[in-house]
Amino acid sequence: MPSQSEPAAPVITGGEPGSFPWRVFHERHPVLLRQVLDGLPYGPEQRRAVERLLAESTGGVIGPLEDGARDAAAWDAWGLGDQLGLRWTDAPFLWAESYFYRRLLAAVGWFGPGPWQGVDPFGPVKAAELGSPAVDEELAALDGLGTLTDAQQDDALLRSALWGNRADLSFRLTGGPASGDPRTGLLCDDGARFWAALRSGPPGRLALIADNAGRELLPDLVLIDRLLSTGRASSAHLYVKPQPYYVSDATTADAVAAAERLLHAPGAAGAVGQRLREALTSGALEIRTHPFLCAPLPFDAMPGDLRAELSSAAMAVVKGDLNYRRLVGDRHWPATTPFADLTAHFPAPVAALRTLKSDVAAGLDAATAARLDATGPGWRTSGRHAVIQVRA
């Protein structure tokens, strides 16, 4: 991180109308809440609570948690008192967006007691994606891995985990880049450093901090299987959210559903699923979670127990845009700020696999940053660009 004599970059907020965070609250969230209410037959009480949250978060100020909230002490520690009464878009974007999803869970009755306790408001969307015919096609592409060299297989699976539902393995198995190949949007490629780091010492534990469920979690699981089955990792921890979060973030139920999807697929995908089932039952692969994974704070504020747990990993793979924001800090860093500097706080060697879907950017060379900036600010949020960045 910057030295004490060097001021940190400004925290990203949504105070400027038309900015990306402002549009999330005023354009994306209203659509999201409508999808939530359309997805499940919530009753009048839940619907009124959701409408109140929409009115508050688009035109009001940040209000308190519901009376008797079981996580009130945690949110007090995470700075709720400092944000109460602010306009939602004036609070740090990372904090406000996380608090929005916490309040949404309360609005739909997820915390209970009552009939909606524990019912994932995003469940219908997740289930529809995981059960789609497109997933069958993507899993079938695993049958072609055997035609590639070991190095090509490594490359294919790492890039599939990077791009998630923007690309499947088929783009790599066609024999080379094709028109519209998403690899052309790869702004930083430390893939070789990732594999070299895994070869540099005896096999150790992999920690993969998951992002989205469904089509994006499947290639994460396939990558974990690759590392376990080839001996590059002796064991693995898959970190998921303790509760529904950011629409599609993976929970334990989502991880189990994805593993079952693989297990019941034909061909190579089914074999991956069988190995994963055996790894889960033997303890070689463990699903882990922690309350801090739904905290509104960057990873440099993680509590000691989670820090100690991650510190024993030989490599941590941090997936997705939200986790990247938490990893480097959700600030207006110059895009050339070294990735290693911003992740020096993380307790293990770390690899970030991230598709850019928010304003923060780091670790780019000056020429790339200048070329992209000349096109306007949209390159940071379009999802058409990605990075593989490693601090070994």
TrEMBL record:
Keywords, ordered alphabetically? Hydrolase, Manganese, Metal-binding, Methyltransferase, Transferase
What are the recorded GO MF terms, alphabetically? metal ion binding; methyltransferase activity; phosphatase activity
Residues annotated as domain Damage-control phosphatase ARMT1-like metal-binding = 25-368
GO biological process annotations for this chain's record? DNA damage response; methylation
Q: Which cofactor does it need?
A: Mn(2+)
Q: Does Phosphoprotein count among this protein's keywords?
A: no
- Superkingdom to which the source organism belongs: Bacteria
Record's keyword annotation contains Iron: no
- From the UniProt record, list the reaction(s) this protein catalyses: beta-D-fructose 1-phosphate + H2O = D-fructose + phosphate; beta-D-fructose 6-phosphate = dihydroxyacetone + D-glyceraldehyde 3-phosphate
As for family, the record states:
Belongs to the damage-control phosphatase family. Sugar phosphate phosphatase III subfamily.
Q: What is this protein called?
A: Protein-glutamate O-methyltransferase family protein
Organism equals Peterkaempfera bronchialis
